Amino acid sequence: MTPTRRPIPNPVLPLLALAAALPAAAADPCLVGRWEPVGNAAGEWMQRNAPGLQVQAAQQGTLEFLADGTYVAGGSGQAQVAATQAQAEVRDLRFQARGTWSTEGTTLVLQPTAGSMDGTMRIQGPAGRTIEVPMPRGAAQPQRLQYACSSDGLQTRMAVRNATPVVQRYRRLP
What we know:
By secondary structure, this protein is mainly beta. The protein contains two helices and nine strands. The protein has a single domain (about 20-170), classed as Lipocalin, CATH 2.40.128. The protein has helices at about 10-20, 40-50, and strands at about 35-40, 55-65, 70-80, 85-105, 105-125, 130-135, 145-150, 155-160, 165-170. Strands 1-2-3-4-5-7-8-9 form an eight-stranded antiparallel barrel. Strand 3 (about 70-80) and strand 4 (about 85-105) form a beta hairpin. The termini are far apart.
């Protein structure tokens, strides 16, 4: 008996082609699902590693790991950073990414296939000189993060050379 084939929607075809080209990878089923960040790891890291720096940030986002080994992420945010003689502000930040994921022991491997970031960065330096530039753009880079996963929580740790790691916590969404 020949199985019935259903047509595959066009947006899925590039992902299937990519998946076919990738070697089979192990994936921790605990990660499968939608996650929401708790706190702001980057802001907390900056305050720990740069004494005197004041960071205020607000963000919203989700990260979803699918059982087929792909992920999607997206969100928005704003941040203000102040130091003794300078300050910076990020406004209207929007980002999205997708790619493949796998695990190697306690290491989460994210391999982005597409992504974008929009927003504006305003920097005011000594003597009040101000510049406003779009957020930097460029291809997203692969990431290797240490992780710990439970039924309701996820924690990732990104190593930073000569500094403490960036630790981000997530809660599972229904």
